[in-house]
Design goal:
Layout (H helix, E strand, L loop, with lengths): L2 E5 L2 H17 L4 H6 L7 H20 L4 E8 L5 E10 L21 H20 L4 E6 L7 E6 L5 E9 L8 H16 L3 E5 L4 H6 L3 E5 L11 H12 L3 E5 L26
Length: 275
């Protein structure tokens, strides 16, 4: 049953595509998804309404801008979507202007879960803005599932292709669907002559390394606060336990350890990045 890469028709594909994404992020449960898309499990009706709300917000916030380009991987025998990705193609560099402060307004103001997700986002956003200042590809991947990721491709002309999300349905993992989407991005990076950067789960290292990435560090979240609640401690422990590996791919995937300079540090090797 070969897998095929195709463009997405949002009118006919999005319901199925979002169902695949939801399944990917909730099997196994991922703390960042729970914080970004909380579900009211009071009843089946409230649960369904919560998921529907997140689907609508997801489409309108991420998927309907002029820059958006959705991709899907389908099973050629059944026609079912097994994986998907969202790219955004920018004609100017969106990172040149300061980013607006991320506010998790779906959580109560001043609440610990809101503070936690906002602090995590601040760490990740700060790293990406700093490291994405030169020509590169940047990918963020789900902490435990190597099939979920996000990355951007930029050039010194400030053209950017931003891959916000890659996801594979749990029933179709280890079939190569994520690799198809990662390879698409790598080929695009090589076509544009740029580097690649990835925040990915440690379980996905082999996938990234297959395409020329090298492991150069681990994201360090600062989640220490005074008198944390039990819920804060639970989520902080889960997030820190799955802290993303930092993967970097030089132009063309050509890396010579001890000789190739990491462009954001100006050093040939930096295994303890202050991220």
């Amino acid at each position: 049953m070969p897998l095929l890469l195709q463009s997405v028709n949002l009118d006919t594909d999005f319901n199925e595509l979002f169902a695949v994404e939801w399944a990917a992020w909730t099997s196994p449960p991922q703390p960042e998804w729970e914080l970004l898309c909380p579900v009211d499990n009071t009843s089946e009706a409230t649960r369904t309404a919560s998921i529907e709300h997140h689907k609508v917000m997801h489409l309108h916030k991420l998927g309907m801008s002029p820059e958006s380009q959705w991709l899907k991987v389908i099973d050629s025998e059944t026609g079912a979507i097994v994986a998907g990705a969202l790219y955004k193609i920018y004609k100017t560099n969106p990172y040149r202007a300061p980013e607006e402060d991320f506010q998790a307004v779906w959580w109560p103001e001043g609440g610990d879960m809101r503070q936690l997700i906002e602090r995590c986002n601040k760490t990740l956003s700060g790293n990406r803005v700093r490291i994405m200042s030169e020509a590169h590809v940047c990918m963020y991947a789900n902490l435990n599932d190597p099939s979920i990721s996000c990355f951007s491709i930029s050039t010194k002309l400030h053209r950017i292709a931003d891959l916000n999300n890659v996801f594979t349905h749990p029933s179709h993992r280890r079939r190569g669907a994520a690799a198809i989407l990662v390879e698409w991005g790598v080929k695009k990076a090589d076509e544009m002559g740029v580097e690649a950067y990835c925040e990915g789960g440690l379980l996905g290292k082999r996938v990234y390394e297959r395409f020329g990435y090298v492991h150069v560090g681990t994201v360090k979240f600062d989640l220490e606060i005074e008198n944390p609640t039990e819920k804060w401690k639970e989520y902080a422990q889960r997030i820190e336990a799955g802290a993303p590996a930092i993967m970097w791919r030089p132009i063309g995937g050509k890396y010579d350890k001890g000789k190739t300079v990491l462009p954001w540090t100006g050093k040939t090797e930096d295994v303890d990045l202050p991220l």
